[in-house]
Amino acid sequence: MRAAILAASPHNTQPWLFKVTDSWIELYMDTQRNVGALDPYLREEHIGMGCALENICLAAAANGYQARVTLVPGNLDPIPAEGMPKLVARAYLSPGKQEQTELYNAIPRRHTNRSAYIPQTPVPPEFIEALSRLTSDEPDVKMFLFTAETDRKKIVEISSAANDEIYSDPAVKAASDRWIRINWSAVQKLRDGLTVDAAGLPPIATAVAKTMPFWMLKWAASRGALGGYSRVMLSAPLIGILAVHDRYDQENCLRAGRIWQRAQLLATARGLAGRPCNEAVEMIDYEKTHKRPAMRVSLLGEILGDPVWQPTFVFYMGYPTLTARASPRRPVETVVL
Ligand SMILES: Cc1cc2nc3c(=O)[nH]c(=O)nc-3n(C[C@H](O)[C@H](O)[C@H](O)COP(=O)(O)O)c2cc1C
Asked: Quick one: pLDDT at residue 46?
């Protein structure tokens, strides 16, 4: 469970709850821990659940268990107004070969790195090959990787425009702000959300940002004073897109989450870092809920060039200029049912 809670989750919402028995672990999603209008079908929260599931499987092997996973099928629905925790997966554990992999060892060191990356240092071909192999046991997920500057520029443009558009909606902003933790006492009390420490700023800027009131920090961020989104994204020599057959299929989301967790752990293990940049896919959800023309489906579809695959997660990777700091977590005791 300690490995599970270190997984990635959208806005660090940590939507998970776990039930542990003698022979299996059940994963439940607390549907109320959501980013509202930014993730109206809980698609990203399900991806986060997949991240936690992957850590459970890696920790099982490291502790001498074989984990056999069953996923709960279903289609994603709009966020329920209230609700009981929802079962999404079960990991059956039986005695197995003890295997402490590089991915398992990277679990405590994996952090989302939002600093700029070193553009002149390309990602080694061996790493790209290893990344591509991560989906070999997940035929429902495909990883598209882009290193050419022309391709990356196109994706950065789409993402940056999506970022501006989606956050111009006050409902999205409010849903996102609910998870921004500025002051230390809120971080200590809630142990979730996005903190200044995780913003990828240099140490002095981090200290200054911590003294700013919330409105000033938001103003600085909107002016690009905290880095400039396109510039930071383009500094990374590799952009990846995880695609599935149906982005609103629950199992597909969980599987994509497992792959993202693996990918970021692999990057960590090999001295690289990564950050999701999901605004373009979030705009796909947004256009769907607002019944607008599916502009981002076509823009991202053109990038992938294969209509069989639907993008569901965008990320970039490379060698970072700064070390990422850890983000808070709710303790295990509060998430085990
Ligand atoms: C489905 C999903 C979507 C995410 N989207 C973004 C994103 O668009 N931008 C970003 O900076 N981080 C994104 N993240 C990273 C989370 O904010 C991060 O995992 C969380 O704050 C916990 O921090 P950690 O990964 O350093 O442990 C995403 C994570 C997940 C699982």
From this structure: 98
